[in-house]
Predict the structure of Ubiquitin-like domain-containing protein.
Amino acid sequence: MMRGSGYDGGSRGVKTDPPVELEWEMRPGGMLVQRRLLDPGTQPPPMIRLRICYGESKFEVSVGRRATFRELKKELEAETCLRQAEQRVIYRGKERENEEFLDRCGVKDRSKLVVMEDPSSRERRYIEMRRNAKIQSSALAIAALSLEVDKYAAQVSAIEKSISSRKKVPELQITTLIELLMRQAVKLDGIVAEGDTSFQKTLLAKRVQKCVEALDVLKLSNGKLKTVIVTTKWETFDLPSTTNLELF
């Protein structure tokens, strides 16, 4: 018994073309489309020039005739400064989907297409710009506070050195420094930060807390020291009597 493969309906002697096995490919975005295969030895699809209108700008781009609109959008990124998701490509009065092929939509060499910015993407970019501005403002504020904390940290080190040397420090100096550090902590708490700036804010807050805790300990140690009063005792000499002076 002969197989029907390669024959028309299994008929004897009637030879037909072998069945064509369709191949599929996954396009960006998750859409499954039929793969376009080129016969061995054939040239790649020719390039076509497309006239693009984007606002008041007009320019041309070159793409493959069998490219998709997604691939066209990739070529348009450099000219429009818009990402693919931000572009809307209009051809013959209709917005085209990413997975549509140019040639199947009738796009030919020198065809005119209109590119528009997606309104939703414009709003997202505006929100992102405002967000970046806030982040930059927060970063500058944290940097300014960090410089102030550097000065106070140096004073804490100086006080610690004095007390370690058994030199009593005026208590007002310690309490004033604690108050100044607490003010910086309040200012830092009022800064809205996110991302890297949030991390920097956390580090600076820990540093301020560490300085305050160190001053609390130094305040107790300083209270146990006695104030050293330096006095000068002059040696006195008895003046010679008048009688003795006359002998000379």
The beta strands are 24-26, 32-34, 47-54, 57-64, 87-91, 94-95, 112-117. The helical segments are 69-80, 119-164, 171-189, 196-223, 242-247. Residues 1-20 have pLDDT under 50 and may be disordered. DSSP finds five helices and seven strands in the chain.
